[in-house]
Amino acid sequence: MTAVEPQAPPLETAGAVAAGTTATTVAKGRARVPWRFLASRAAFYLFTLWAAITINFFLPRMMRGDAVDQYLARNRNVSPEAADALRALLGLDTDKTLLQQYFDYWGLLLRGDLGVSLLHGMRPVSEVISQALPWTIGLVGFATIVSFAIGTIGGAIVGWRRGSRLDGLIPLTTFLSTIPYFWLGLLAIALFSVNLKWFPIGKAYGVGMSPEWTPEFIGQVIHHGTLPALTIVIASLGGWMLGMRNMMLTVLDEDYIMVAQAKGMPNQRVLWRYAARNAVLPQIQSFALSIGFIVGGTIVMEMVFSYPGVGKLLLDATNAKDYALMQGVFLVITLSVLVANILADLAYAFLDPRTRQTEA
């Protein structure tokens, strides 16, 4: 009886075994670009942008009255011809159907024209928003990033040292987060501004100063913005810390954490390279949404501290029914949220290799 020689495995299977995988085929060359995934995500975000802009157009027009009616209520001496000219200038011409106004609105958007604001003396909406946007991004954006960083790092450490005295930070920060923000802001003003006189009561800079890039003005901005920034950090810290701590408790029970510890890896490496890196993934989407809504500002904060920003601008535009300004602010908020979600998708793919493999 002759011995049967073992046949060599196919090249594809041999390549898979050599690569240390269980796949039957191995992609040759460089990794393929996930064009199908990118196309689907691009289509999703484009559809979302179209839907948001469409709702942005029709929703204000469902309100009773418009900006011209509000203006005529304050100025009785305006002629009917001037009122009709104002409506035509603001895109509220009654001679055109709502569908025609919608297409005209898209035409203006594609040219980068957001219209003019009747509330701000017929100034371009883009100019009005560009003056308020830096104040909101500078204050609320900085405070949100600081609260996310402190809460995430603190929650990872508390979760890693579960059962220690550090667990007492969770109910404390959670209690501070349950306090209504307007009450927290008023308490901060009463204590640190009125009694201790450490910080100004409100505004973005001192009376009599004009915005300019000088050390004195920058110091005024930092001095006036410290107290509202601290209140934002205190109010939002508990949510970040609690979420990260709970995810750490879940991740620490996984097998790969026990294997890493059994191999004798340093605790700091296991904490930050394995446990915290996986526990932070659910936080990324929440952080992206927070970054997106930074542009909307914190209306309550801006009202309590008399701080200029996009939130206060949106509130004033809504009260005055200034359609062009409302639509411009909503458009900026929508774009910021979409961009933040795109960045979150990229962060997921960078932090989680499984996402890259699935997309590919």
From TrEMBL:
<feature type="transmembrane region" description="Helical">
    <location>
        <begin position="132"/>
        <end position="160"/>
    </location>
</feature>
<dbReference type="GO" id="GO:0005886">
    <property type="term" value="C:plasma membrane"/>
</dbReference>
<feature type="transmembrane region" description="Helical">
    <location>
        <begin position="328"/>
        <end position="351"/>
    </location>
</feature>
<feature type="transmembrane region" description="Helical">
    <location>
        <begin position="287"/>
        <end position="308"/>
    </location>
</feature>
<feature type="transmembrane region" description="Helical">
    <location>
        <begin position="38"/>
        <end position="59"/>
    </location>
</feature>
<dbReference type="InterPro" id="IPR035906">
    <property type="entry name" value="MetI-like_sf"/>
</dbReference>
<dbReference type="Pfam" id="PF00528">
    <property type="entry name" value="BPD_transp_1"/>
</dbReference>
<protein>
    <submittedName>
        <fullName>ABC transporter permease</fullName>
    </submittedName>
</protein>
<dbReference type="GO" id="GO:0055085">
    <property type="term" value="P:transmembrane transport"/>
</dbReference>
<feature type="domain" description="ABC transmembrane type-1">
    <location>
        <begin position="133"/>
        <end position="344"/>
    </location>
</feature>
<keyword id="KW-0812">Transmembrane</keyword>
<comment type="similarity">
    <text>Belongs to the binding-protein-dependent transport system permease family.</text>
</comment>
<feature type="transmembrane region" description="Helical">
    <location>
        <begin position="181"/>
        <end position="201"/>
    </location>
</feature>
<keyword id="KW-0472">Membrane</keyword>
<dbReference type="InterPro" id="IPR000515">
    <property type="entry name" value="MetI-like"/>
</dbReference>
<feature type="transmembrane region" description="Helical">
    <location>
        <begin position="221"/>
        <end position="242"/>
    </location>
</feature>
<keyword id="KW-0813">Transport</keyword>
<keyword id="KW-1133">Transmembrane helix</keyword>
